[in-house]
Amino acid sequence: MPIWQVLLLGLIEGLTEFIPVSSTGHLLLAGHFLGFNSPGKAFEVLIQLGAVLAVLSVYAARLFTLAVDLPRDARARRFVLGLILAFLPAAAVGVALHGFIKTVLFETPMLVCITLIVGGIVLLYVDQIAFKPRFKDVMEFTPSLALKIGLCQTAALIPGVSRSGATIVGAMLLGTDKRSAAEFSFFLAMPTMAGAFAYDLYKNWLILQPDDLVGIAVGFVAAFVAAVIVVRTLLRFVSRYGYALFGWWRIVVGGLGLGALAVLG
Fold it and tell me: How far, in Å, are 13, 26, 68, 128 from residue 219 at the CA level?
């Protein structure tokens, strides 16, 4: 693993994990055209923990307050229950289809390009709808709403769909505003990505070599630094400008990817 490739892929992960453009899709396409191969595609999953820690660092005070309030605050308990319910669908489907996802879907760059384009069109369409949101605070999300958002998240097991894109679009269609949809996606990322990290490490531990672990560590740090910047700025951006920019970005990247696959294979 050349260090410059590891750093580049780590930065791509951190910059794209929490915006609705599919970090996994970007990593798989970049890796394909760079000739980058990791054992069991573990690198692409394991460096996501850096992005998880970025959310933990930015929301540390809020998470601490939530933990303190949990025994005595019904709103806090409802919010945590909602996160658990939202996490479970993707966790169950991901474990059941882990082999198929890694050996088939992750190895099909054309699929990634197509889902990027389709997802971009969906994002542009949803962004221009004049919603009348019923929920503007993640602490007010009901458990049933959280579960429905979690069901939407399962679509992101297809590379190129985007975990944050699926949860944000799903949340907005279910009655949340743009800011709270993005914020809930941040919180849901913590158990989802931590679980993916743990399961993928368990499945691939025996095939990882010392050099692989060094590369993963470097990519992890790069992803952490880039994700901190995104998490600190994204909520202000989407509150003001919405998601149209990300929709166009997906369409351009997917189109360029299809063109490159046609020329280079």
Answer: 8, 14, 33, 36
Helices (H), the chain: 3-16, 23-34, 42-46, 48-58, 60-69, 74-96, 98-103, 109-127, 143-153, 163-173, 178-204, 210-241, 244-264
Q: How many domains does the chain have?
A: 1
**CB-CB neighbours of 188 under 10 Å:** 25
Q: What is the pLDDT of residues 190-241, one digit of tens each?
A: 999 888 888 888 887 877 788 778 888 888 899 999 999 998 898 889 888 8
pTM value?
Answer: 0.88
Domain with 218, as residue range(s), is 3-264
Distance CA(11)–CA(41), nearest Å, equals 17
